[in-house]
Amino acid sequence: MALIEARNLTLENRLDSVSFTVEPGEMLAIIGPNGAGKSSLLQSLAGLLPAGGDIFFTGIPLHSFNPVGRARQIGFLPQFCDSAWALAVEEIVALGRLPWRDRDIYAIHQAMRETGVEDMAQKNINQLSGGEQARVWLARVLAGVPRIILADEPVASLDLYYQGKILDILRQHTREGRAVILAIHDLALAARYCDHFCLLKQGRIHAFGPPETVLTEANLSDAFGVSIHVDLAHSPPIILPA
To answer: Which residues pair with 179 in a beta bridge?
Structure first.
């Protein structure tokens, strides 16, 4: 059974009849030009935007879950995060346990170890670099041990090492039976990790499927409005404006 299923998600001027399913163990990349609807789609799946249509979690309508029940199953990492308070890193990560109403020290420290922020545990979040903060916010999501992780540009502010490291972490979570849906602009990097791609254009699905089906020169050139060269046989894959 699909972990999450979207049926005809529609949001005025943002999404138009978007439908797909994601199975346990899968990583789905949401791609497309700026303004295509990627963030709106993720926020709708997280229950944060009131899109028309239906969303199901393991066959159960998502609207039937109360906010706490939904937060226990779905972890959402927005594109931009900040803290209104000068909290220590460990306190930020511990917030991921709020839906469970506990402070599972193992889960908190495991999340910090995974994202490489354990040695920053007592540092003020506002004293960290943008890339370090991005890893802390991801650790907060991981601390909740959600079955589905929704991440909006999780590697955008990271250096080359941590781009691969974070995607390795997300890939490992899918191997444990979870699912990951992420918006990402680096198509070549996504091609190395993601099982399926959802290419959006003006709020509609332009192409959906495995990388060799979606990441074609015709699909990408049409969606992005620029001629794009694609070589998925190369290791690593090459996807560049021609």
So the answer is: 148
